[in-house]
């Protein structure tokens, strides 16, 4: 693991808050030159520290709402490769949004997104459960998202500040 | 209708005539006047707010909620809970290298404002002169007058970074001078004082036997490695200094009204008398929250300071890009750009900016001597709002130049 310098950490913090910030804006905020910021971003991208820039979408606001399930998967690890090979088989499916190796009662937590319940159910029964090493699955559908990636979905009531104060 | 003893009708006295002349004659605050103007306009971006835009960190609010659930709703000891005074003493020692005895040298107050009021009331003999470097926080002068003192402004200027100088101070000293009121980091200029800046001031204080009320409410908000130097930490000054601070700015706790004052035990004992007969004690829920802030809130505080620093750079660069002279504020969360080259007064500029560009900022003249020709702009607001405000101000200034 690489140790990042202070400048890169600050760039990451600013981009994490708002990925659309321009290098010139960040340069002013951090007190660096635009060229230094551009170099830092390029290095962060080529080192795969920054993996992608994506919007956090509140799908419940959109008509075409999606269904998300968190599936607890128990598996038998493979000799020599442990969980890696099975994890790869699972995460390569495009409907799988994230895969985590977990401690505790099950081994993998798989986030699956589909257009409706049937699509997710079919994926679990036809693809996931049929993998040889998979011992069991337990599907938990997400009913409502309150907070994701540190962002609260509900419009928070904010006490209005005075417009002018001493 | 009021009749006199003979049954004749007499003119009813105005209600105002019952007021104490001292209070009646105090002019309404310039900020208040501007507040009314802002309220009448819509879609305003405001840079006029002297408080953090952060909500008090959740763990601080939660500590208060939990304490309420357990039924902690009574009075505390007049000076504040022993735990909180202990924590304040430790915090000041760790942060600013000043040592106060929690049992008799620290008093917890209802905001820094009460602490300043107590300090002035405990010290002023009617007719005493209180020296106040200006531009400064708008309350110092009226609160001095209410206490029976005479406020004497000491003008500071942009060329000198709005710092108080020994010469400037000494020029205003008379036999009636008793107290020097300090506020560094400064509201409204963002100026700070270094150790070297303080030393000659301390000599003048000693020579003229003055007492200092040092409002250090913005102490934690300093930037560019300019660590705050408490006036109390200057050799020989602790005995003469009443250090006032609180939780409003650094811990985003303005509405809690939690402050404190640290001083020689004789001063604290005098202030405690007024405090116990007027407010009894600071609210217990605020004290619980303040203790949590000091105990577990330093990381959150640092995060907020870093965020102010980023926005400080943004606003200063923004004003310079617009072509307005802006000295670099080293503390607090205000920029104080000069608008002199536009040819407008602070009042005119602020009012036209509000009406024509929908940006609210406070005209510098309301902060006293040396404030005319400047604008106070708080950068305790989001980056998006700041960027939009700067764009609007730029457009407004361009329009003025062409016009």
TrEMBL record, chain A:
Pfam families: AsnC_trans_reg (PF01037)
Superkingdom of the source species: Bacteria
Domain Transcription regulator AsnC/Lrp ligand binding as annotated: residue spans: 73-144
Transmembrane segments: none
SUPFAM superfamilies in UniProt: Dimeric alpha+beta barrel, Winged helix' DNA-binding domain
SMART domains per record: HTH_ASNC
Signal sequence, start to end: none
Protein name: AsnC family transcriptional regulator
Highest classification ranks of the organism: Bacteria, Bacillati, Bacillota, Bacilli, Bacillales
InterPro entries: Dimeric_a/b-barrel, HTH-Siroheme_Decarb, Tscrpt_reg_AsnC-like, Tscrpt_reg_AsnC/Lrp_C, WH-like_DNA-bd_sf, WH_DNA-bd_sf
């Amino acid at each position: 693991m690489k140790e990042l310098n202070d400048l890169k950490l600050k760039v990451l913090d600013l981009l994490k808050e708002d990925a659309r910030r321009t290098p010139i804006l960040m340069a002013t905020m951090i007190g660096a030159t635009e060229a230094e910021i551009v170099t830092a971003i390029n290095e962060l991208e080529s080192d795969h520290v920054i993996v992608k820039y994506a919007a956090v979408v509140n799908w419940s606001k959109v008509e075409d709402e999606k269904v998300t399930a968190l599936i607890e998967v128990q598996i038998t690890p493979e000799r020599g490769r442990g969980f890696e090979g099975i994890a790869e088989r699972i995460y390569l499916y495009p409907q799988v949004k994230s895969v985590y190796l977990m401690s505790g009662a099950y081994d993998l937590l798989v986030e699956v997104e589909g257009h409706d319940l049937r699509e997710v159910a079919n994926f679990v029964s036809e693809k996931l459960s049929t993998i040889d090493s998979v011992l069991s699955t337990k599907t938990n559908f997400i009913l409502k998202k309150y907070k994701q990636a540190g962002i609260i979905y509900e419009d928070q009531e904010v006490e209005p500040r005075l417009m002018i104060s001493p | 209708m009021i009749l006199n003893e003979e049954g004749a009708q007499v003119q009813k006295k105005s209600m105002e005539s019952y007021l104490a002349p001292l209070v009646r004659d105090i002019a309404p605050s310039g900020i208040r006047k501007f507040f009314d103007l802002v309220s009448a306009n819509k879609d305003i971006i405001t840079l006029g707010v002297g408080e953090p835009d952060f909500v008090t960190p959740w763990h601080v609010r939660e500590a208060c909620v939990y304490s309420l659930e357990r039924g902690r709703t009574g009075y505390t000891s007049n000076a504040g809970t022993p735990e909180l005074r202990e924590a304040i003493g430790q915090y000041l020692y760790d942060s600013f290298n000043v040592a106060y005895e929690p049992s008799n040298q620290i008093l917890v107050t209802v905001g820094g404002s009460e602490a300043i009021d107590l300090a002035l009331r405990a010290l002023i003999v009617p007719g005493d002169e209180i020296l106040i470097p200006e531009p400064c926080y708008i309350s110092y002068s009226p609160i001095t007058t209410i206490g029976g003192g005479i406020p004497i402004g000491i003008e500071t200027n942009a060329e000198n970074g709005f710092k108080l100088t020994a010469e400037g101070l000494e020029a205003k000293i008379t036999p009636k001078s008793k107290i020097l009121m300090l506020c560094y980091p400064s509201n409204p200029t963002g100026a700070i004082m270094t150790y070297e800046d303080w030393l000659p001031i301390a000599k003048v204080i000693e020579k003229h036997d003055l007492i200092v009320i040092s409002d250090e409410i913005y102490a934690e908000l300093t930037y560019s490695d300019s660590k705050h130097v408490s006036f109390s930490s200057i050799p020989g000054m602790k005995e003469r200094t009443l250090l006032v601070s609180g939780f409003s700015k650094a811990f985003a706790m303005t509405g809690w009204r939690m402050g404190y004052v640290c001083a020689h035990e004789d001063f604290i004992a005098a202030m405690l008398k007024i405090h116990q007969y007027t407010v009894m004690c600071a609210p217990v829920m605020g004290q619980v929250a303040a203790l949590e802030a000091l105990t577990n809130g330093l990381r959150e505080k640092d995060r907020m300071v870093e965020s102010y620093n980023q926005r400080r750079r943004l606003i200063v660069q923004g004003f310079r890009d617009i072509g307005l002279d802006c000295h670099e504020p080293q503390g607090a969360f205000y920029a104080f750009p000069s608008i002199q080259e536009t040819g407008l007064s602070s009042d005119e500029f602020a009012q036209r900016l509000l009406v024509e560009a929908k940006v609210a900022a406070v005209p510098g003249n309301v902060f006293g001597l040396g404030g005319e020709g400047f604008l106070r702009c708080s950068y305790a607001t989001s980056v998006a709002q700041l960027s939009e405000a700067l764009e609007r101000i730029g457009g407004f200034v361009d329009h003025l130049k062409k016009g």
